[in-house]
Amino acid sequence: MARHAAADLAGGVRLLAQEGRLPAGTRLPAERELADALAVSRTLVTTAMDLLRTDGVIASRRGAGSWITVPDQGRAAEPAHAPDLIDLARASPEAVPALADAVAVAARLLPVHLRGHGYEPYGLPGLRAAIAERYRARGLATTAEQIVVTTGAHHAFGLVFRMLVHPGDRVLVEQPTYPNALDTIRAGNALPIGVAMTEDGWSLDGIEAALRQSAPRLGYFVPDFHNPTGHRLDDAGRVRLGAALRRTRTMAVADETLVELDLDGDPLDGPAPLAAFAPDQVITIGSASKSHWGGLRIGWVRAPVDLVDRIVSVRATMDLGAPVFEQLVLGELLADPEPVLARRRRDLAGRRDLLLAQLAVHCPQWIVRRPGGGLVTWCELDEPVATRLAVAAESQGLRLVPGSRFGVDGGWERWLRVPFTLPPAVLADAVARLGRVARAVGGRRVLGVERVPVA
Ligand SMILES: Cc1ncc(COP(=O)(O)O)c(C=O)c1O
Fold first, then answer.
1. pTM listed for this prediction
2. Which of 218, 230, 135, 237 is nearest to 178 (CA)?
3. Which terminus of the chain is more solvent-facing, meaning fewer CB atoms within 10 Å of its CB: N or C?
4. Whose C-alpha lies nearest to ligand 1, atom 12?
5. What are the tens digits of pLDDT across the range 104-119?
6. Distance between Cα 154 and ligand 1 center (Å)
């Protein structure tokens, strides 16, 4: 039992190091302090530290203590290629089948571009026009001049963040939220202010109060198939949020990375983009990563025209443009977008339903809401054991990301994000493994530390 507990403690520290929440170089408290804080025996802590040292997660020197040595995310990235490992930490489907043909067309279009220098800091004109056209189809008047093509939505957020936010500024975020956005905010020495989401979605009261009381420099919202909860902000919510942003003159990013993945409907019939409700305040970011393929690394910013040049000048400090070939590939995929996107939605809806059915069989004690779109389910566990699950899952060849990764200050131990992006057979195997892990972990405590969920 003590050996189990020591392995749990070591696993928890390893997970925090892998997620970058304990960055390389972080000094650990002395063993006695750690034992007192966790209310466990000194022997247990010593055993855990030995395990971590053997694994190369920490290094120690007499007199200098122990510190984390794992480079951020380093080990987390590596075993994904282990033959039998199933990765439920990442929510990214494989490329759409049409990609191969689009690559062939792009190869035929490339020679014209080879005569030029290939630097396109605003993006290829044809692709900017195609992206603008998609906004117009969704009911938001947009010109190609408002679009800057980036290397993914994450890059797009980084650009807007660098343009608007300074160290010490506050950034309002949903709680829980997309962890890489939180990392960008923290890396820029800004302060994320989390507004807890409710069972049904957004607390507009909470957001309005936070806008008034915290005067954030920027808001970051994922209004369409929110990552990780899967919620979608309805029209009335958009009207209210737009009005609050206008009233308080707060700039906000609407991250629409998942908007095309409306699994029960048609994205063209969905609520109007958030930018329609506060045109001067909302900068929209989008991406082909989930709708077509993450490996294209193509995303974009849609901004008021007067901000576009500023965005491009910020870009000059990070990169000088997105790759031309990949832009040609996406341009081809967007030439007639509907059939490709409809197939993507159909495939993902099938995987979502499979995941829900498998979870009902293997993890019946969890509460799982059926998301109307996106790529993930946000599962409410019967106990606050998400980190323990993630640690124990490794022994089953399963990678999980616990709910705490989505919180501003951790928490969310009762929640687990489970994506439905893997091919059906793999997904079914993954949930069977998940059920085994849940049964093994059920009823035991999180490393002796009870964390209270934030909401
Ligand atoms: C809400 C959200 N924003 C941004 C991204 C990153 O997208 P990209 O691959 O285009 O950088 C993701 C990927 O999971 C996401 O879910």
1. 0.86
2. 230
3. N
4. 257
5. 999 999 999 999 999 9
6. 6
